[in-house]
Amino acid sequence: MTFNRSLWPKTMAARIVLLLLVGLGLSHVISLSVYNFDREEIVNLIGRAQLTERITTITGIIKNAPPEEREKIISFANSSTFQLDLGTTSTVKNNDPLVAKRFSAALSELTSFDSRMPILAETVSGEDSIWRHLSGKSTEKHISITDHFEHIVNEIRTGPLIRVSIEIGDNSWLNYQAPDVEATMPWSIRFVLSIAVMMIATAIFSAWAAHYLTDPLKKLSIAAEDLGRSVTARPIPEKGPLEVIQSVRVFNKMQARIYRFVEDRTQMIAAIAHDLRTPLMRMQLRSELLDDNELKRKFSEDIDEMNQIVTATLSFASEDAGRKKNDRFDIVKLISDVVVDLSTLGFSISWVPPDPISLEGQKDLLRRALSNLIENAAKYGEWASIHIQIADGKLIITIDDDGPGIAPENIKDVFKPFFRLEGSRSRETGGTGLGLSIARSAFRSHGGDVTIRNRAEGGLRVEAYLPF
């Protein structure tokens, strides 16, 4: 037998509720079975004792009553569930000694009862009683509609009936017929409703309890996602069960260590960059004293390239996005501004602005990232094409070019810092190998990402995602 995993809830809260309901339901059924077993024994004992006492009492009264009063007593004792008549023969067809002994023991306590008088008894199905009802033999004594209806309900029952015949002398037999007491499982409407109310109440309480227990875990997952965007996210409040508090405390400590590590790295790189710029400036000044113009030009180009690398490295390592407040801005206008700036530099860019799209984030950081991506596409191809759309809860910015593309084995490395391709995408074109790394870091800090793939028709396709 295999377990259908599609029926198993996905969330921890739903699993807790389901397990509580299943466990409670099983325990209730087992408890009910044990209770009903004991109840059946007790009900049978008490019910049969009451029936025996009733038959014994009536028998004693009728036996001692004058013959002319016996019919009145019988008529008064009859009911829809208890029938007796006085006849010359017994109605018991198949005597059961065990059942007869039960009544014999009770009647023997009567001083007027002769123990030598026979007692016959048997247990039969309700079919004979149904035949009596349909033949009209048992309805004449039920004068009211309510009593008659009650009689019909009790007559048409499939449970066993008990018949007792007692000889009281003068060839007279008292013939009794009554439902034999038999306890059954209490599957009544009220019982089912009580179970339903209990399960609903349990479901509501367990849902609240599950939410209380799992809410800190949900906040922990949200905090982990926020940590992926920025190391300056607020610590999680240490609330909930002890195990959750311990997990949150460890997570907050980890976040603090990561923040200190990033801070130390940023300060170290900033210090290195600052120290590098001083000798670079001296080199630039000393190169001006050279008499050889060609050598002076080469020195100047190398110094400019080193300055670009230092500036790009600072931009990549500073991680300023996590320290600034988010702003709401129009991403369509931002792209349009970038396109205008690059077009004035002679780049060919195709862009048809759609309706405004409001977005919350670091405007300057995303502007720099998009500028890097669009400039790369326009620089290494003859043109760049930009499209923007919203799908599956994401804002997708697609940038196509018709350049030479990238070898498949190098696509996974293009986002590594200082990685540069040979050929057209090389240092001679002014690249430092940090543009794509900076762009992806900016988008990831907003919960998005950047992917690159070769187009079937040639060139590259860059897709930048942002949650929307």
Mind explaining what this structure looks like?
By secondary structure, the chain is an alpha+beta fold. 53% of the residues lie in helices and 15% in strands. The strands form 3 sheets. The chain has a 5-stranded mixed β-sheet with strand order 6-8-9-11-10. It has a 4-stranded antiparallel β-sheet with strand order 1-4-3-2. A two-stranded antiparallel ribbon has the order 5-7. A hairpin with a 2-residue loop joins strand 8 and strand 9. Helix 1 packs antiparallel against helix 6 and helix 7 packs antiparallel against helix 8. It is rod-shaped, with a radius of gyration of 48 Å. The two termini are 44 Å apart. About 8% of the residues have low confidence.
> Roughly what fraction of the amino acids lie in strands?
5-15%
Q: pLDDT average, as an integer?
A: 76
Overall geometry: rod-shaped
Which value, in Å, is the CA radius of gyration?
Answer: 48 Å
Widest beta sheet: strand line-up: 6-8-9-11-10
Secondary-structure-derived class: alpha+beta
> Biggest β-sheet: count, sense, barrel?
5 strands, mixed
Count of helical stretches? 11
The helix/strand series, from N terminus to C terminus, equals HHEHEHHEEHHHEHEEHEEHEE
Low-pLDDT runs of 5+ residues are: 128-146, 148-158, 423-430
> Strand tally, please?
11
Helix content: 40-55%
First and last CA, distance: 44 Å
